[in-house]
Specification:
262 residues, mainly alpha, 15 helices
Amino acid sequence: QKLGAGGDRDATATAHSRHYLGWLAQRADATRRADRDTLRETDLEFENIRAAWLHAAQAGLHDALGRSAVALMSHCDIRGRLDEGLALLGDAAASPRVADEPWLRARLQALAAHLTYRLDDFDTALASAQRLLADEVAAADVVARQQCLRVLGSIHLQKAELDAAREYFTRAHGEAANAGQTLSAAAMLDNLATVEKRAGRYAEALRMAQESLVLMRRAGAHADVALCLNGLGVLHQALLDPERAQACFDEGLAITEREGFV
């Protein structure tokens, strides 16, 4: 269908934008779980999503951007479209039509900080997350605040600054647990298990990893379950329990092959 002129064209573009960003937002949980069918569907619609996102940023469709931003970031993260996702989030955050909604700009910048971290630009991601967390308006947005805590924890973990990593992951876990965000809470427990493993506290790491695995199974997050099982296998090896280690590795591999992650 051809777009009309002037107002008709804008109205059509806005309808298109709301439709595809609403479609994306509805799939946020499934995307975060790395659901195979959801990821494939989003791949097929990605050019429509890109056009919808760019129009929403230009037109100031704050609600559509805010609801779909996490799903956009998650998809780009899982599919390795890090540069694309970062560009889309960055362009929207820099849009003059977003500047009048500080909470939205903060959310977009926090999600961009995660992709910046994933691109191994730790200094830029660290500075962005610290700045946002110190900003009263940004920190008031739950999505932005939690994302910043995760980014800071991850960077400090990469730098082997274990006390700082533990502090940020613990805060992120507490917020997720209190909000009933099962998968986010599980992910933070898994991160905390990694911190404790690197600190040589294997028993505590094992306890956290096992608790995380229970939550991940409950959430149906197959990719996260497979990764967690691999981490558990490494822990069992460190605790000189090769049979349990091999059982974890075998189950993780079976999930990976079944879900098509390889």
